TrEMBL record:
Required cofactor(s): heme
Keyword hit for Ribosomal protein: no
Record-stated family: Belongs to the cytochrome P450 family.
MF GO annotations: heme binding; iron ion binding; monooxygenase activity; oxidoreductase activity, acting on paired donors, with incorporation or reduction of molecular oxygen
Annotated source species: Scylla olivacea
UniProtKB keywords: Heme, Iron, Metal-binding, Monooxygenase, Oxidoreductase
Higher taxonomy: Eukaryota, Metazoa, Ecdysozoa, Arthropoda, Crustacea
Listed name of the protein: Cytochrome P450
Length: 251
C-alpha cells in the first residue's frame, strides 16, 4: 500500500513513479498536474518507484527497528523527518512495516497532493482505537474516523456553513479577538530567555477557545484563568494521555 503522507509527485518530481496499474494512475495524475500548471507536457523516461531516495530498511519491520529497540522514540519523529529531508531531499521514500510512505516537502508538491485528492479522499483514521470503541458501542465514529460517502455527507454539511469565504468572514471578528487574547497570553508566559515553556498546553487551549467562539459564540474561558481554564487544562492533559496511549499501542 502506498500512503501519500500529505504528499504527491509534482511536475518537477515526475521521473519517480510507480510501476503497474498504480503507476499508470500516477502517470495520469502527474500529467494532469502538468497540464493544469503549465502548457508543457513533461514526458520523460520514468524511473522505478524504488529509485526514490530514502533510509535503509529491513524486511517486515522496514525502518521501525530503531524504535522497537529504543534507539529512537516516535514522540520525536518530527525531528527524524527533518533529518530525512536534509539528507535525501524534497522527495523521500520510507518503509514502515508493510506500508510505504512518500514524504514530500516542497509546498508546491504538497498543493498538488490536495489538488488531486478528488471528491472523497481516503484518510487513515487518526485514532483507530477510538474508531473500534465507538463501533463496538454503536456510537458515531466522528468525522476523523470515516471515509467515503459518509465522510462526504458530513464534510459537505460543515463546509456549507464554515468553509466558504462569505460564511467564514462572519467569524473573522470573534476569531481575531481570541487570537489577540492568545498572543497577550503568550507574551505574558515568556521566560527570561524569551521562551514559552508550556506552549504544548497553551496552543490547545487557544484552539478550544476558538472552537467555542465559532460553535457557541461565547468564551469558554480557556485563556482567562480561574476554574474554566483549569477545566480546559484537564481536557488538554486527558487528550494528551489518549494520544500517548495510542502511540504505545501502535508501537
Amino acid at each position: 500500500m502506498l500512503n501519500l503522507h500529505a504528499q504527491m509527485l509534482s511536475k518537477r518530481q515526475c521521473t519517480f513513479l510507480i510501476g503497474g496499474k498504480l503507476g499508470r494512475e500516477v502517470v495520469q495524475m502527474v500529467r494532469h498536474v502538468n497540464n493544469v500548471g503549465t502548457d508543457i507536457l513533461v514526458e520523460e523516461p520514468v524511473k522505478p518507484f524504488t529509485a526514490i531516495p530514502g533510509p535503509p530498511w529491513i524486511p517486515v519491520l522496514g525502518t521501525l527497528l530503531p524504535y522497537k529497540i529504543g534507539m529512537k522514540k516516535l514522540t520525536g519523529y518530527h525531528h527524524e523527518v527533518c533529518r530525512l529531508h536534509q539528507k535525501y531531499g524534497p522527495v523521500v521514500r520510507e518503509v514502515f512495516g508493510s506500508q510505504t510512505v512518500v514524504h514530500i516537502f516542497d509546498p508546491d508538491d504538497i498543493k498538488a497532493v490536495y489538488d488531486n485528492d478528488g471528491k472523497m479522499p481516503y484518510v487513515p483514521p487518526l485514532q483507530e482505537t477510538a474508531q473500534f470503541y465507538r463501533k463496538e458501542n454503536n456510537m458515531s465514529p466522528g468525522l476523523g474516523n470515516i471515509n467515503g460517502e459518509e465522510w462526504y455527507r458530513l464534510r459537505h454539511a460543515v463546509q456549507q456553513m464554515m468553509l466558504r469565504p462569505r460564511e467564514a468572514s462572519y467569524y473573522y471578528p470573534i476569531q481575531d479577538e481570541v487570537a489577540c487574547r492568545a498572543v497577550d497570553r503568550l507574551e505574558a508566559e515568556l521566560d527570561d530567555q524569551g521562551f514559552v515553556r508550556n506552549l504544548d498546553f497553551l496552543i490547545p487551549k487557544w484552539i478550544m477557545e476558538s472552537a467555542g467562539m465559532c460553535c457557541f459564540e461565547k468564551s469558554l474561558g480557556c485563556l482567562n484563568g480561574g476554574v474554566d481554564e483549569d477545566l480546559s487544562q484537564k481536557l488538554v492533559e486527558t487528550n494528551l494521555k489518549i494520544f500517548q496511549n495510542i502511540l504505545q499501542v501502535d508501537q
